[in-house]
């Protein structure tokens, strides 16, 4: 990833206020509350709102992001909530996670650059144990129509960085699909996710 990409997220997370709020994503919350706590990985975790929520539920949480500013906010949020999270800074290939280790991986608005998003999904698959769960929510390719009407809803502005059901099936082929849909939702997450948007939601179990 480029320095400008890292700088973009450092700039966003350097403000005192949390870019996407301190509360967990609604879909993640709904899905985690169905599961028994275990080990979970949060890629592109930003300021830690979802990781901290999982830790409060009793999960053993690992997370990573390219933004050191994001990590700083996440660790402060964890301390405020009296929980601990293992948070690494760097690109996935430079980090040392254990294969077949995690019971769940949560990809919540993990919009990696278009050129590498599928390869990252396939790389992450190695770290999930057999029977483990992927929880995914991110903007769909249809989202550009919503973004054109309301920039406050946020999300990437190039269609290649957005997702389709077809792409998710291709990236996670060896999964039992528990749920996979495109859906219009109302977002109210901090400063940068506000209004109606179109998302892909996916829950899958690794075969």
TrEMBL record:
Record key words, sorted: Methyltransferase, Transferase
GO molecular function per UniProt: methyltransferase activity
Positions of the Methyltransferase domain: 45-132
InterPro entries according to UniProt: Methyltransf_25 (IPR041698), SAM-dependent_MTases_sf (IPR029063)
SUPFAM superfamilies the record matches: S-adenosyl-L-methionine-dependent methyltransferases
GO biological process terms held by the UniProt record: methylation
Gene3D superfamilies cross-referenced by the UniProt entry: Vaccinia Virus protein VP39
Name of the protein in question: Methyltransferase
